[in-house]
Amino acid sequence: MALMPDLLFVAAKFASSSRVSWFDWSDTLTSTHVAFEYVLNAPFGRFVGAVCRERKAVSARYYKGHCAIRKNAKAFKRNPQWGRVDWSRAKIWGPDFIWKWTTGYGQKMFRLLLIFLFFVALGTMVLWSDEALKLPPAEAGGNIQQEQGWPKPVDRIVYSIDLLIPGVDLRAGDSRIVAPQLWVYEVVHIFVGWLLVALLIAWVTAIARGSR
Question: CA 93, CA 17: separation in Å to the nearest integer?
Answer without folding.
Answer: 50
